[in-house]
Amino acid sequence: MTWSIIARDSATGQFGIAVATKFFAVGARVPYIAAGIGGVATQALVNPYYGIDGLALLREGREPRAIVETLVAADSGRESRQLHVMDAKGRIAAFTGNECVDWCGHIQGDGFSIAGNMLAGAAVLGDTATAYLANANLPFAQRLIVAMKAGEAAGGDKRGKQSAALLIHGEEEWSDLDLRVDDHADPLAELDRLEQVSRERWVHFRSFLPTRSNPAGITDRVTIDAGIEAGVQAATAGKT
Question: Among 23, 90, 176, 191, which residue's Cβ finds the most Cβ atoms within 10 Å?
């Protein structure tokens, strides 16, 4: 009932997961990312512990194939699950249970993994991959959304649309971007709109937040406001 893409941006090192489905609040259960380490997407009859335990195993240095084998072996409901995992070395592994609803499957490429179930057909994943590869010039968040829109144009979830999400992590444990559309007639269009709104202030503001290397961050409001304004002006100039 879902398709998702896990990818790593070669320019920034960011990990991102984008997902869409005809189900409520997909962003609350499918995407899991450990900054600088890897990502997990758990879907179909979702098992949240695939995400929780999968990230723990990634942090231990386990490779994706071993992680998938470990998770599904411990789950008697495995045949109703779908899972894919990608680590910082670009290694990928996936599992689609025999009881997942057609069309279901997984494809992968250099720096990305795409999996889905209950889809209109194989073209959903294929067109998602084609669009991701064709839009390497776009900023990472926009590239992921464009890829998902291409999959939706190919039929997406065969039941329809309801929710979508985009999760991106950079160097810090907290997310660079965490956008969720829980219930909407056109969730990917709304996700696209929210990403545009994030570029108005949030993406410029987040550089002032605390980091491991600067635990206090920047707290001077004059500096913050000036930095946001400079970022907005630079982004506006880049569009002309």
Answer: 191
